[in-house]
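LAB NOTEBOOK - FOLDING QUEUE
OPERATOR: T.R.
BATCH SIZE: 2
PURPOSE: Compare the predicted structure-token outputs for two unrelated chains run back to back under identical settings.
PRIORITY: normal
REVIEWER: second-year student, initials M.K.

ITEM 1
FIELD SEQUENCE / FIELD STRUCTURE:
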Amino acid sequence: MRIGLVAGELSGDTLGAALIAALREQHPTAQFCGVGGPKMAAAGCEIWEPSESLAVMGLTEVVRHLPRLVRLRSQLRQRFLAAKLDAFVGIDAPEFNLGLARQLKRAGLPTVQYVSPQVWAWRQKRVRTISESCDLILCLLPFEPAFYADHGVRAEFVGHPLADQIPFEIDRAAARLALGLRDDSRVLALLPGSRRGEVEHLGREFAAAARWLAHRDPNMQFIAPMASPELRYLFEQQCAQVAPRQLIRLEQGRAREVLAACDVAIVASGTATLETALSKRPMVVAYRMGRMTATLLRRFALVKVPFFSQPNLLAGRELVPEYFQERVTGEILGRAAWQWFESPQRVAEVEAAFDDIHQRLRRGGAALAAQHIAALIDASPAA
């Protein structure tokens, strides 16, 4: 069995590594190649291009990188077809992967999209073209398959691998000890994103929120796990512009430990919000994009859901405060985080809701996804 993979950014690399391990568990001689990060490489994938190559965000940002992305897609198509694959699996990054999958499907290759595009949230007409690109959609969220069923697209809910990886009970004191954090004062985690565009849009305001909170509680500890050395340097420069020196401690990676250690987190919208919820930590969520992209979304009413953070979407109500575009300011984020510190009853209520989300998402994740992929390959005419 030989499978081509294309994973976008840090979260896709994590999902890809878990999928590779699960497929190898079922098919020990399976081989993998394509686009991935260090976790996929460590799991045994032959990396042709790093995941960071796909890490662009927003409509205008994609347009700027379009010529390079088109060339990369063409090169990957040629290499995948020459590699005699049994299947192609796109992991997240739907803007890139669906076009590539369409080309490979037309050439007769079984194609899978692991992580549903958020067509239920915005630009719903895209679902008409997804069936042209994919034989199967593997969904991480429980409400997604019903949406696809209404449009005649095969989709399966496999749960979220993070729900299997993160324990139900987390030892905050042990995490603080491992990170060298004091256990006698509050800890706020800052997660400004895993992509450069996210950190560029959010980093200064996250640092400003820490400064606002430090005025309220001078003993509060601030810690930020950074996804890469490049992003760490960028955020360090932003912190130096708006916050007192050494107010915020930066860690390379260790996001899960930081979330375990903190009391409250301020988080960039995306997979990190789900990881925070599964860690049972109250949070404030922020989302900023390029001004032109935001204007287009608003002008054409492209967004069809009331929330953008995963905890709120899964709950169907506002569990955690979320702020978009011009409402992402240091003071607004700081005040929202402070309300969590001052509301233990509200924290207990949201922790119970996060427990429910954790239970619903724990389905075997990568192992179930691997079973569906193997079944698709076995059922293909070329098998």
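ITEM 2
FIELD SEQUENCE / FIELD STRUCTURE:
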Amino acid sequence: MKIQTNKVFEHLDNSTKRITIEQGGTRSGKTYNILMWLIFGYALKNKGKTITICRKTYPSLRASSMRDFFDILKEYDMYEEADHNKSNSEYKLEGNLFEFISLDQPQKVRGRKRDVLYINEANELYFEDWQQLIFRTTEKAILDYNPSDEFHFIYDKIKPRDDADFYITTYKDNLFLSKEIVAEIERLKNIDENYWKIYGQGQIGSSQALIFRINECNSIPPEAKFLSYGMDFGFTNDPTTLIAIYQQGDNIYLKELLFEKGLTNSDISNKLKFHEVERKEIFADSAEPKSIEELYRMGRNIKPATKGQGSVNIGIDMMKRYKLFVTKDSVNMIKEFRNYKWQEDKNGNILNVPVDMFNHTIDAIRYGLYDKLARPNYGKYAVR
């Protein structure tokens, strides 16, 4: 069977080390080629092996490496419904077991041993997570990630090991990208030097232009007071986001409830019901009046956020008055906070204009925080 792969597959096929680290820019083919190797380079050459594919949270796992795994099987006409245990997130392939686990499933993380471990977006994990996983891995561990965080245990505790390989790949290593995608990535050169370094060149970035410094917490403290929900709409290219906002004195606590593309207003209403938002206040992007009106008619307590000239910077200033805490399971929000930054000119001088990227959850927070504390008049949407 002829398969299409790139150098990530070759790295793994030629590796003699216990650990392989694949650091790469966006669209370098890391995830796809690691999965290809796990299937064709390992599973089809062995019997009775357990291969674990892991990510921080189950929703992110399901939307990324799990989906890609089954897409590959179907692409090569290898998928068998009878071999797929959907309730346990497992698949049997040629006498081997593929299991999909996340860090929000502690019973699986601390469960049985495995032969091969693949951690997708490994820089989402903490060192304690890594230890629990590697202690139960007998043969091989594979990690991949975009290098957005310059201070991480991967660089201090894993990369220096003598039993670890380390590779960097970029979009140029993915020969199957369309010209349009390549052009989109290369536009980063003119948008932001740091983003280009990270997502274009696959290198560790660092910048003094980072807008927020956040703290992570395990959960919302019971004594914190609920303020509101903030929502930013998306569909094809951008996700719809929903953030729960709590306050305790000068501390603001944030929890990501929704970060998903392709949602209709009916889908959003159902998600709100699932998260038991019901009649609690939601402040949403006023640039989507039709969506707000439809959700309002569906019985949701949703209001248009106050926007206007300078509202982005005003909202940022208000957020900066507080110490921000983000729950550890809010992986998309944490990633955005780590990448949301001010524009810089060609000389590296920081401008008072945020880069219009990595702002979906942060926009939602601005809407909920500013509009709750400022208490503007919402007309027909006002609670009487």
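REVIEWER COMMENT (ITEM 2): The chain has a mean pLDDT of 91.
FOLLOW-UP: none requested
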